[in-house]
Design goal:
five-stranded antiparallel sheet, 1 helix, 47 strands, 45% strand, globular
Length: 669
């Protein structure tokens, strides 16, 4: 790359004690889109802007600190990209999304660098930039104590249309029937699982919306596909973006027939639509006119703002589109809308006021408030939000430093706690496409595609990371996390993954997101596109597939504690040993007949009077142990009733509470 135009000032030095350095550039009018074919070309005047940055730090400084470079501009509808080059001119890192500001977070290694700002779509804007040292947050998630859940992967039959054209899939589950639904471009699949075998078996069928089954506008053309299933009612929507609205139909009988919808509200955006729903917010006078018991929202992006519209008749028609943020608040790109049990609506966004967060409505979509995570950095992938049974909010976001974070809020996003890197324990250095689900208030799961390879993951020529699907589970409200590699022997992608939208090459095969859902038993299901299939798995050469695949939990704790496997302590044998000198004993065998471990004491009694209580006994599922109590029979004669009682205080929740006790009679002479 040749030298570019100069910034103002043209150079600066940042050290461990210098404080931040700032500079500006522009205004810029002509767009530079040459990065669509690799690194940007800067031969045309004002097609790039360079700042010479010198970094000087002492040894070991990078252990606890990073170098942060932030470039922002007033009109978020514009788009600038940022490249950091080393002294040899090689690209060290890139921020080339649609975020405003664009942010780079890299190790503060001493040396000379070039910060190159590229006006991808400048719209006459100038930019302001800052380079500073920032402390690393102690953000690694504490490890959870739960046994890591097990996931099985299910690929769609190759005979199904769009089976290998499933970029940015979405997935839903009907709690009425247990069926799951997967959207792959123009195709809607119904998937059922046989849980009588381990791992369960899957059956796929094509239930796509077509003119022949009632959807005159469905499955014919699309700029973006999306699917939403209301788990409570089972109503499933398939939506195909058509420009300023969507071609949408819904089914109440799992795809046997479909019904038309107006698609969304007016106005609507031209990109990246999302459908979601749940309960209405109580107390709204307009609820009296509701024609359907559940709310349905349609939200979409319009360059640098977004609109959300509410349907009160089950998604057949929608009200007016309401702007959910302004150009002064957020960039245009948002994630998928989710509703809390009380009807509060959350629309996540990767760049609001220089942070990631959510836009929140507590009045059935009439007004919206932007709330951000304080220590987050704008990233390249849409964040994902899920809400527990009592309103706890979990925001999964791909942080600007490449790590996968989850932050938790107990007050609708006003404040955040437990903002942790849930991929650190697995050594994950780069992530894309987070998706989140929750169940009980203290249980949630965030899935994402990640790699243990550091560096610029969008560098198609030089990045060779191996990507897998991961899911992080919490069972204590985000205080700790257990992260599982869902695809340990089958990479999802090898090499680069482009998150730059239509500027990408063939490494955009996975498109922009993945989806997840939870079934009635609390099992997590993740709908993703597998980009590495066939010979790619063994050769290491990616074939840029987009194969419709579901990762589904089949073992381990689910997101609903009511379905947890329970222990069952039984007194399976009781014997006595009577000695002539009175030094007798009672021995009980206790067995855990349940499916999870337990700890309990054993109480012994003679003729209804407690003799003694043992120390606590720990039993794994299926394990047995013997416990013996001393019994002084000196001076005792005749028939005695002896009893052993496990869990004497009834502290354990068990699958069978009736077998904790055993009684026998013995005659003492």
């Amino acid at each position: 790359m040749v030298a570019a135009s100069g910034a103002t000032p043209a150079a600066g030095t940042v050290t461990d004690t210098s404080g931040a350095k700032t500079w500006t550039g522009g205004p810029f009018v002509a767009p530079n889109v040459t990065a669509q074919a690799g690194d940007p070309t800067c031969t045309v005047p004002q097609s790039c802007d360079d700042y010479a940055l010198t970094v000087s730090t002492p040894a070991g400084y990078g252990d606890t600190n990073n170098l942060k470079i932030s470039v922002g501009w007033p009109n978020t509808a514009a788009d600038f990209d940022v490249y950091l080059l080393n002294s040899a001119g090689a690209v060290v890192d890139t921020a080339a999304s649609s975020a405003d500001p664009e942010t780079l977070v890299v190790p503060p290694t001493s040396g000379t660098y070039t910060v190159r700002v590229v006006p991808f779509n400048p719209l006459g804007q100038s930019y302001s930039a800052t380079a500073s040292m920032v402390a690393k947050a102690p953000d690694s998630a504490p490890p959870g104590s739960a046994t890591p859940p097990s996931m099985a992967n299910y690929g769609a039959p190759a005979s199904l249309p769009d089976a290998h054209n499933a970029g940015e899939p979405s997935i839903g589950n009907s709690w009425k029937t247990g069926s799951s639904f997967y959207q792959a471009y123009l195709s809607t699949y119904k998937v059922t699982f046989n849980d009588a075998v381990t791992p369960p078996a899957a059956s796929w069928s094509d239930v796509s919306a077509k003119a022949t089954n009632g959807c005159l506008v469905g499955s014919t053309q699309s700029l973006d596909p999306i699917l939403y299933t209301d788990s409570t009612t089972g109503r499933t929507f398939e939506s195909q973006l058509s420009g300023a609205n969507s071609l949408t139909c819904y089914t109440d009988n799992e795809g046997a027939t479909w019904n038309p919808s107006t698609g969304g509200g007016i106005p609507s955006g031209v990109d990246h639509q999302t459908l979601g729903g749940g309960n209405f917010v109580a107390g709204d006078p307009l609820n009296a006119a509701n024609l359907y018991p559940r709310a349905v929202y349609y939200c979409s992006q319009d360059i640098a703002t977004a609109f959300c519209a509410l349907s009160r008749d089950g998604g057949t028609t929608f009200g007016a589109g309401v702007p959910v943020y302004s150009l002064l608040d957020c960039g245009g790109l948002h994630g998928h809308i989710m509703l809390a049990p009380d009807g509060t609506a959350y629309l996540p966004n990767k760049s609001c006021n220089g942070k990631q967060g959510v836009t929140v409505s507590s009045d059935n979509g009439k007004t919206w408030t932007v709330r951000t995570v304080p220590n987050s950095i704008p990233g390249d992938s849409d964040p994902a939000v899920s809400i527990g049974a009592n309103g706890t909010v979990y925001l999964g976001y791909a942080n600007g430093d490449g790590t996968q974070h989850v932050a938790v809020s107990h007050d609708k996003g006003a404040t955040w706690v437990n903002d942790y890197n849930v991929g650190a324990a697995a050594g994950i250095k780069n992530v894309v496409f987070p998706t989140a689900v929750a169940g009980d208030d203290n249980r949630a799961a965030v899935s994402f595609i990640g790699t243990t390879t550091a560096g610029n993951y969008q560098d198609a020529a030089n990045f060779h990371g191996v990507w897998h699907l991961y899911t992080a589970f919490t069972y204590d409200g985000g205080a700790s996390w257990t992260t599982v590699d869902d695809t340990p022997t089958d990479p999802v992608q090898i090499g680069s993954i482009c998150t730059g939208g239509t500027t990408c090459g063939n490494d955009r095969n996975l498109l922009d997101f993945i989806g997840s859902t939870v079934d009635k038993q609390g099992r997590v299901e993740v709908g993703y596109a597998d980009g590495c299939t066939g010979s790619c798995v063994t050769s290491g050469v990616n074939n840029f597939d987009a194969y419709a695949t579901i990762a589904r939990q089949y073992a381990g704790l689910t997101l609903f504690a009511a379905n947890d496997p329970l222990p069952n302590v039984a007194v399976s044998n009781l014997t006595t040993s009577v000695a002539n000198n009175g030094a007798s004993s009672i021995t009980a065998t206790v067995t855990n007949l349940g499916k999870s471990s337990l700890t309990t004491p054993v109480q012994f009694a003679v003729n209804g009077k407690v003799l003694s209580t043992s120390a606590p006994v720990t039993l794994a599922a299926g394990q047995s142990k013997t416990v013996t109590a001393a019994w002084n029979t000196k001076g005792i004669k005749g028939s005695q009733t002896v009893q052993a009682l496990a869990d004497p205080s009834n502290a354990l929740a068990e699958s069978n509470e009736a077998d904790n006790r055993r009684t026998t009679s013995v005659t003492v002479k």
